[in-house]
């Protein structure tokens, strides 16, 4: 009779292991869902910066960075000038305040 008893213990251990794995997955899912809801509801949806990129035929790319003030005004913050070589790689980078 000891053989069926041992088989019963193994099935109970497997059952408990499956329950633990399911519970861990459930807890992680609930935490992820709550984090997503909090991020969606929070009022910090306005970004702090806005970007404008322009590419010229001479191989110079200009990216202007603006700060967003009061959620509706733009103030020029930085300007990046990238010069590209014949293969399209950046050969020079200039940052203007």
What does this 3D model show about the protein?
This protein has a four-stranded antiparallel sheet with strand order 1-2-3-4, with no helix packed on it. The model has no long low-confidence stretch (mean pLDDT 81). It has 97 residues and is of the alpha+beta class. It has one helix and four strands, in the order αββββ.
Beta-strand fraction estimate = 35-45%
Quaternary state reads single chain
Q: What can be said about the biggest beta sheet?
A: 4 strands, antiparallel
Give me the Rg, rounded. 29 Å
Strand order of the largest sheet: 1-2-3-4
**Succession of helices and strands:** HEEEE
Tally of individual helices: 1
Helical content band: 40-55%
Model regions low in confidence, pLDDT < 50 over at least 5 residues = none
Please supply descriptive tags for the structure shown above.
97 residues, alpha+beta, 4-stranded antiparallel sheet, 1 helix, 41% helix, 37% strand, elongated
SSE layout and pairing:
Elements (H helix, E strand, L loop, with lengths): L1 H40 L7 E7 L4 E10 L3 E12 L5 E7 L1
Task: Summarize this structure briefly.
By secondary structure, the chain is an alpha+beta fold. The protein contains 1 helix and 4 strands, in the order αββββ.
């Amino acid at each position: 009779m000891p053989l069926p008893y041992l088989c019963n213990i193994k099935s109970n251990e497997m059952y408990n292991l499956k329950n633990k794995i399911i519970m861990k997955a459930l807890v992680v899912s609930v935490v992820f869902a709550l984090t997503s809801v909090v991020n969606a509801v929070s009022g910090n949806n306005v970004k702090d910066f806005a970007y404008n990129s322009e590419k010229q035929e001479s191989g110079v790319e200009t990216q202007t960075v603006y700060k967003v003030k009061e959620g509706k005004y733009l103030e020029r913050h930085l300007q990046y000038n990238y010069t590209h070589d014949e293969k399209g790689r950046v050969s020079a980078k200039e940052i203007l305040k």
